[in-house]
Amino acid sequence: MKATVMTYGCQMNEYDTHLVESQLVSLGADLVDSIEEADFVLINTCAVRGKPVDKVRSVLGDLRKQKAQRGLVVGMMGCLAQLEEGQQIARKFEVDVLLGPGSLLDIGKALESNERFWGLQFKDELHDHIPPAPQGKLQAHLTIMRGCDHHCTYCIVPTTRGPQVSRTPDSILRELDGLLAAGVREVTLLGQNVNAYGIDQGARVAGIPSFAELLRLVGQSGIERIKFTTSHPMNFTEDVALAMAETPAVCEFVHLPVQSGSNAVLRRMAREYTRERYLEHIAAIRRHLPDVVLATDIIVGFPGETEADFQQTLDLYDEVGYDSAYMFIYSARPGTPSYRHFADLPREVKTERLQRLIARQKEWSQRRNAAKVGTVQQVLLRGDAFEPGFLEGHSRGNHPVVVPKALGADRAGIYPVHIGHATPHMLYGAVLGADGQPLPELPRLTPEAAALSAPLAML
Ligand code: SAH
Ligand code: SF4
Ligand code: F3S
Q: Residue 383: which region, alpha, beta or left (left: phi > 0; alpha: psi -120 to 50)?
């Protein structure tokens, strides 16, 4: 069988795609890159906003044609699959296999079945399942917990992914050993709320360390760089900042979603912290990590958000001076409390506020990135950039970085890079040699010559 998995959504979904792909390989499937080559197409779906759901609808529409024409088998996994909304879509588009985020290990059973297979349970066996390490990659994700015990009123994730279950440190460390042995040098620990690691259903699970303790443990494993996402301000504690500062492998990067700068909105979102408390966390993080790079998530146009509320979000943005932000227009999701209880704001109001927020974010990203010009950053270069002759990667602070290929730095690796230029979204630099001087750049092909030579390079 030739199979391909298409991934939408967050890093959790990317991790789950890797997990399912490795199951498919162990079942004897060949993984292929395109739908045209595949006999089985599996879509890993996201349901957090309306847009990714619309995307799945349009992809399934195309796939249904191919089902009719050439007997393609179509599967849907991930968050949308868990929802009634997703199951209706699956029926409409004649999906053969449906796997919710808790049933991924049923993929074998699903493919053996001669009829439509729907797996929607949250199965315990998944939590300590260790997928084989990805091959030939310098960075990897590692899910340390699944699900979410919060009930932010706008959010569908607790419904799609179920209650929080933390993995044992033992299985996390075993997975990490495998990653290390496969040559991985940077690991991102994943969870909807990593700061609540070990506190499932509101109570500490016996024998499981706190997140700060886990960071220290993972920091001793020999892995060079550790990142984590996402942090929730409600469960953020100062000992996490301290553990970060005292564990050299943990990168100085914190993604702490604020969602809104207005206490009235935060209350209606049920975020369980105030603007003041949030700013105390930022102060504590900066106290322990003066060079920290800060990112956030913001929702604009939550029901009832007034212009004054929105101004408070802009003010908070200035007060923190974030390096980057994911900014979203509120999307009313069926099944969430805010969908049931609050009226949506007009679309124009939401879009206009988003544009103002994006403008503010750009100013700050430009300012923060410009401050990196002249510094040396340790950059994990993943591989070829979009432009021929360049490599791309990211710093410990998660800035995207582009460098020209140089003698001794023409492939993936971690290199010291002198930053020469910054835009709001990118740092540009040159790889330094052992003498602290930039390595000589390799001759660069013009884009036209590179396009011509590409087919030759593939032979
Ligand atoms: N567990 C993570 C978030 C996961 S969802 C956390 O709490 O930080 C990622 C982001 O999507 C959220 O931080 C939020 O900003 C955004 N989001 C979630 N539901 C949304 C909705 N209904 N409309 C718009 N954005 C939403
Ligand atoms: Fe959603 Fe809130 Fe849980 Fe994050 S913490 S996944 S926003 S319910
Ligand atoms: Fe989307 Fe599920 Fe992630 S809803 S954002 S794929 S947790």
A: left
